[in-house]
Every structure is written in structure tokens, then in C-alpha cells.
Specification:
Elements: H1 8-21, E1 23-32, E2 38-46, E3 50-59, E4 64-73, E5 77-83, E6 93-96, E7 100-108, E8 117-121
Parallel strand pairs: 1-7
Antiparallel strand pairs: 1-4, 2-3, 2-5, 5-6, 7-8
Length: 123
Amino acid sequence: MKLKRPTTLTTVVLLVAALGGCGAQYSVELSNESGRTAVASVVRGGAFDGHRTLMTKAVPSGETAELGPFEAPGVEGVRISVTRPGDLGATPTETRLRRGYNAFVIEAGGVDSWEAVVLRRVE
């Protein structure tokens, strides 16, 4: 029996399936210095299957909270989205997460900003 050489389409399908099965580990530590309770959500999403909230947690002012660890497929973007209840018309602040451990300080947004909070990454 002679094996056929895989076609380009077969190779692409196998590659996508393999990447889709690979998961990346994430964890987030948030320290809230914004003066009010903030709500943080970890969201993953892509153009193919929409956005999904993986985890949500309220972080009271002056406290630190952890989200995760959790796993998400490696081909989709994972980000943290932070808002403060009561900030009407304010845009949620979002930033993409790096694989592994992520630490941020939540600070109050400026008077000139549409964002009620600012996320400062701690290296």
C-alpha cells in the first residue's frame, strides 16, 4: 500500500486543529487603587466564535484580587476588561494578557479620559 502525500489543505487543517487543542495558562493579579470598587472580566474571543467571558470578579478599593489560573486556546486573544459600576458612559479599559502571570494596578482615569480606570502593568 502506497501512502499519498498530504495536500496543502490537509496540512492546514491539521495545523489549525493542533493549534486549537493547545491551551495557554493565564493568571491575573489586580491591585485596585482607583478609589472605588472595580469589576474585572477576563475575556477571550475571536472573529470565528465570538467573545466569551472566562471569569469576572469585583475588586474593592484598596484590595488585591486574583483571577485564575485558567486555560484558553492559544490561537485566540485573551484580555482583561475593567470597569467601575456607576461610571456612566465610560468605556471599559481593556488590555491583552500575556501567557502566564500578569499583574496590574487599577488607577482612576483622568478627567479628560473616556476611560474611568487605567490599567498599569507591573513588570
